Q: What sequence folds into this?
């Protein structure tokens, strides 16, 4: 952070752009300044502020795993002013990046446990970081199950990585699309994530559940986990509140007295229960 | 900051001579200035511009360190790269905030706590370091004031570097409180004489009746999040930003970029939790949907979250937000009602 | 040669004035080149804020021109525009913005000569009035404000 | 005074309305809006000609619409605001009861727009004396002097948007200044951003503003904003023959036209 200006972004060049789904893109970014590249490190679950100079800043989690050195990736849907201008950029263009901010998925505490990842729609990116982090240190964990759902087949992000996970013997991948979103040759599940989860009858013993998705999906997924016996401190999620500074100053992302950018974005369900319903 | 307060006497009918010295020393002096019907803090070039008579200005004095528009990133967009220019924090001027009230000066304490929490916001901190605050103790008060209910009082020296109290037609008590105050007072030390017999400062201060007990409110707030009192109190609130923008302790800000052709800057602007768009998600989901939710956030942040997390009070009892509110949302009245829930 | 070359921005409607300007060109009528022409489907589409953006970005004068009443390709675009300009012209004058720098006119597709006159007269008038310093200072004064705020 | 309270109590008592919006005593000599839902609370209602908030600003609020039939204490500008909201299809006839308190403290009840229209023909609205004086002083100035007057006033503006919040006509779900694709009005309160905001607000209100003066009263730094939105009124009446808030069916002056509209500046 140059001369103490905590809002000064570092410059990053876009190495690769992948079209994940309609209006959803993934950027692979490299720091322009070598020194910054060396000093930079982050933990899975952290996020950053990505700026298009002249348009503004957007908040996305770092979607790549810390085990993959030399670059970071972010995935975003084109929705507002900054994301639309990001979507217009090409490979080789330069954007700004501030971070890493926020707390982490405590993957060290999860050693020796089963992991159940549940993601919906555009919420797979924050999960992808922690999934790859665990898969790259696969020996630390018992069995890993991934349940991922999206509206339609075309909306599924990271299609090639889903294939990779499907072909791995040590991962149990279940992909579903909302009813009516399937294509004729769709072989995966059909149904909303909570209903498919109920069918899977997940067992809670020695298992950590990580849930990410739109508020509506979380609202119906938590009861399923509760019914299956998951305790509140074994369920993790990451909140996506509106943010501008990302470091606890601009005063807008708080839920109760916790700032999602400083005390989150990763929370356990136990923490969420103690917070007022303000997210 | 723990320094023995030096008490001196200044024999004169008005402090203009002191201001003269400050201006002559090249300090940028900001003081209450009248313009038409309103009095607000402005930079002055001569002591005659200062308005001494009004109790408080419309807006607080936070703009000397937290301006309403501030440039935090300057950039130039090149062909396929970007030039980001460094902001020179040393360029901020030596300045003096003259004629603030104790509740204005006390406002800088919560501001400092937020802007210094983990990450140091140099835009505020560097300006604040270079600002000497000379406050005037209050000899009057009105029905909006409630500094005594939030740990302050009309002669509160918290946040002030020097405090001046009028103790007679031709006499002032000058208290030099901090090292920064000591340094600035050197400019006019020859005008001051040591205090021979102890001045009863309280005799010259106004009486501000207590409205509520801060700790009782603090404890009550942790259990009434879902209480309908918030919607009732905020039913008349119009959702503008006046209360947050005039408040000495409100630090929320927004980032907006501006660019013309190649050059541009990222601006840090005042923002308010009263606005509906403050927390709205791109998807349209808004965690704070109703005006009652937003009013609750304003009160909880100042009277519960900040005291708990930063050990500072988010309100100095100046009553500006109540005076500036188009529909008379009187915070003293609302908090007293909450205390008696 | 006058050293001050006014920058004029012309907001014109596509069906009449833009075609009229073409006719001016094809009939080899000379008119000053200080004008940057922006084409709109209709004068009804010309938003008053666009004019203010032109001033903010350094225009010294503005021409707004479109079809004569009853000639509008969309039948009522210019009627609405006329009411808007009546109000806007008086409002900016009340706010102190120099509305002598905005020239409104109807130029049909056949009035190539009139278009040249409108442009030449406006350029002359703006040359007399000089650059629009007030608005330029206001638009760029943020850097002074921020200096003042910085210092 | 009791007449107003009696009227409100009757309306609430026999369920003619579920909510009465009026004024109650505020801090010091101020009065402020109050929402009365229970009959016994009606005694809070006060009426003093000084009070200014235009209660029509609450009529489009979701919680007011949810309350069903509503009555509100209306000053003459508030009645005109109601008709103007009606002419913009924001409120339906017979949804509201307007309570007007005459000088002799007796109340008049208006249950439909027609009765309000006939009443307003005789009621007069205009600028307060000191506003009229400032307006004539401004009109006497040169354009240059007016520019420096307004830029000095606008320098005080902190963009708290109290002017927009207090105005019953500013009910847009998303104001132009919050549209950011493109960012039409600079959100910063530097001189350009402030002038563009007030110019755009005045232009969007001209022909709709009924001069309740609330934007100027609500402005914490005291900028005489209602001069901007209402100064055009006399000229527009003369030119377009329409006065906002007098009839429930008048069309917005800038969305209709007459082929024979006159003007003197289009070449």
A:
């Amino acid at each position: 952070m140059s001369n103490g200006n905590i809002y000064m972004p570092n410059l990053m060049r876009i190495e690769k752009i992948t079209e994940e789904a309609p209006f959803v893109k993934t950027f692979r970014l490299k720091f322009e300044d070598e020194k910054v590249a060396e000093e930079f490190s982050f933990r899975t679950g952290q996020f950053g502020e990505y700026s298009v100079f002249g348009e503004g800043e957007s908040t996305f989690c770092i979607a790549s795993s810390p085990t993959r050195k030399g670059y970071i990736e972010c995935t975003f849907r084109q929705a507002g002013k900054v994301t639309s201008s990001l979507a217009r950029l090409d490979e080789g263009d330069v954007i700004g990046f501030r971070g890493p901010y926020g707390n982490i998925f405590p993957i060290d505490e999860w050693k020796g446990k089963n992991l159940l990842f549940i993601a919906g729609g555009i919420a797979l990116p924050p999960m992808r970081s922690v999934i790859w982090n665990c898969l790259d240190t696969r020996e630390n964990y018992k069995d890993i199950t991934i349940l991922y759902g999206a509206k339609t087949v075309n909306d599924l992000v990271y299609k090639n990585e889903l294939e990779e996970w499907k072909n791995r013997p040590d991962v149990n991948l279940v992909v579903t699309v909302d009813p009516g979103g399937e294509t004729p040759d769709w072989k995966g599940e059909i149904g909303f994530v909570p209903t498919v989860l109920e069918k899977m009858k997940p067992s809670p013993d020695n298992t950590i559940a990580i849930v990410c998705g739109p508020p509506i999906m979380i609202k119906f997924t938590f009861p399923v986990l509760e019914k299956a016996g998951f305790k509140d401190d074994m369920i993790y999620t990451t909140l996506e509140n509106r943010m501008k500074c990302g470091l606890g100053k601009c005063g807008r992302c708080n839920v109760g007295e916790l700032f999602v950018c400083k005390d989150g974005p990763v929370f356990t369900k136990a923490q969420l229960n103690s917070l007022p319903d303000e997210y | 900051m723990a320094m023995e307060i030096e008490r001196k006497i200044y024999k004169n009918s008005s402090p203009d001579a002191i201001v003269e010295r400050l201006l002559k020393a090249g300090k940028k002096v900001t003081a209450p200035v009248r313009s038409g019907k309103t009095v607000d803090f402005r930079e002055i070039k001569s002591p005659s511009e200062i308005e001494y008579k009004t109790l408080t200005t419309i807006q607080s004095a936070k703009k000397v360190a937290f301006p309403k528009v501030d440039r935090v990133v300057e950039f130039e967009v090149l062909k396929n790269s970007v030039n980001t220019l460094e902001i020179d924090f040393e360029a901020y001027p030596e300045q003096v905030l003259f004629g603030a009230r104790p509740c204005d000066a006390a406002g800088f304490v919560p501001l400092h706590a937020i802007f210094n929490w983990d990450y140091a916001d140099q835009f505020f901190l560097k300006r604040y370091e270079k600002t000497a605050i000379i406050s005037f103790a209050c000899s009057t008060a009105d029905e909006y004031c409630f500094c005594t209910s939030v740990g302050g009082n009309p002669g509160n020296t918290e946040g002030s570097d020097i405090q001046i109290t009028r103790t007679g037609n031709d006499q002032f008590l000058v208290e030099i409180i901090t090292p920064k105050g000591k340094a600035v007072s050197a400019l006019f030390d020859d005008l001051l004489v040591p205090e021979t017999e102890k001045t009863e400062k309280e005799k010259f201060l106004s009486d501000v009746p207590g409205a509520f007990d801060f700790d009782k409110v603090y404890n009550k707030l942790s259990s009434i999040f879902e209480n309908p009192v918030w919607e009732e109190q905020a039913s008349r609130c119009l959702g503008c930003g006046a209360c947050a923008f005039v408040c000495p302790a409100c630090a929320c800000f927004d980032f907006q970029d501006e660019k013309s052709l190649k050059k541009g800057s990222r601006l840090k602007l005042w923002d308010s939790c009263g606005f509906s768009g403050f927390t709205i998600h791109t998807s349209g989901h808004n965690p704070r949907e109703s005006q009652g939710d937003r009013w609750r956030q304003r009160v909880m942040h100042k009277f519960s979250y900040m005291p708990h997390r930063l050990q500072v009070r988010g309100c100095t009892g100046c009553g500006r937000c109540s005076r500036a509110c188009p529909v008379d949302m009187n915070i003293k009245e609302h908090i007293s009602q909450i205390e008696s829930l | 040669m006058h050293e001050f070359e006014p920058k004029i921005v012309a907001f014109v409607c596509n069906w009449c004035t833009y075609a009229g300007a073409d006719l001016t060109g094809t009939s080899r009528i000379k008119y000053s080149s200080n004008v940057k022409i922006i084409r709109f489907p209709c004068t009804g589409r010309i938003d008053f804020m666009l004019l203010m953006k032109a001033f903010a970005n350094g225009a010294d004068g503005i021409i707004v021109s479109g079809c004569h009443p009853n000639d509008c390709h969309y039948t009522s675009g210019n009627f609405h525009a006329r009411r808007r300009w009546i109000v806007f012209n008086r409002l900016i004058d009340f706010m102190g913005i120099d509305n002598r720098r905005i020239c409104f006119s109807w130029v049909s597709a056949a009035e190539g000569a009139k278009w040249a006159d409108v442009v030449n007269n406006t350029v002359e008038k703006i040359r007399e009035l000089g650059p629009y310093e007030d608005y330029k200072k206001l638009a760029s004064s943020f850097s002074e404000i921020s200096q003042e705020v910085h210092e | 005074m009791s007449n107003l309270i009696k009227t409100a109590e009757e309306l609430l008592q026999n369920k003619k309305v579920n909510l009465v919006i009026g004024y109650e005593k505020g801090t010091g000599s101020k009065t402020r809006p109050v929402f009365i839902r229970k009959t016994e609370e009606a005694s809070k209602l006060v009426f003093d000609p000084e009070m200014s908030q235009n209660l029509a600003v609450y009529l489009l609020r979701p919680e007011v619409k949810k309350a069903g039939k509503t009555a509100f204490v209306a000053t003459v500008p508030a009645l005109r605001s109601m008709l103007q909201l009606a002419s913009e299809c924001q409120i339906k006839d017979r949804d509201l009861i307007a309570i007007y308190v005459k000088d002799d403290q007796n109340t008049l009840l208006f249950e439909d727009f027609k009765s309000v229209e006939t009443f307003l023909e005789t009621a007069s609205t205009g600028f307060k004396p000191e506003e009229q004086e400032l307006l004539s002083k401004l009109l006497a100035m040169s354009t240059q002097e007016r520019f420096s007057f307004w830029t000095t006033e606008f320098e005080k503006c902190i963009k708290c948007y109290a002017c927009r919040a207090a105005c019953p006509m500013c009910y847009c779900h998303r104001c132009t200044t919050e549209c950011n694709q493109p960012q039409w009005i600079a959100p910063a309160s530097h001189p350009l951003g402030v002038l563009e905001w007030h110019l755009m607000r005045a232009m969007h209100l001209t022909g709709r503003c009924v001069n309740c003066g609330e934007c100027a009263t609500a402005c914490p730094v005291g900028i005489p904003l209602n001069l901007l939105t209402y100064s055009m009124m006399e000229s527009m009446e003369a030119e377009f023959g329409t006065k906002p808030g007098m009839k429930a069916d008048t069309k917005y002056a800038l969305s209709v036209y007459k082929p024979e509209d006159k003007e003197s500046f289009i070449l």
In short: The first helix of chain B runs from residue 16 to 24. Chain B has ten helices and twelve strands. The interface with chain C takes residues 28, 43, 63, 67, 69-71, 91-93, 260 of chain B (CB under 8 Å).
